[in-house]
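Morning!

This is the sequence you dropped in the shared folder:
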Amino acid sequence: MRMFLVTFHKLVSDDTGHERPARQHQVLVPATSEASARAAGQALFCEANGIVDWRLRADSCEAAAVQEERA
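The structure's back. C-alpha cells below.
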C-alpha cells in the first residue's frame, strides 16, 4: 500500500488584503488511491479537531503520494 501526505489549508487574509493558504493540518496515511487517502485524511482531521465536517476548519484538502526511500 502506498503512503500519501494529506494536507489541509485555510485561506486567510494577510496585512495587504491578499488571501494566502495557511496549513491547518498534515497527516501521513496509507491508502490504495489518492481519493481514499483524502477520505482517510479527512476522517483523521475531523477526529483530531472534534468536528463532523473538515470544511469547518479548512478550505482545501490535497493528497500527494510519498516516494519511498530505497537503501
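Headline: The two ends are 19 Å apart (CA to CA).

More detail when I'm at my desk.
O.
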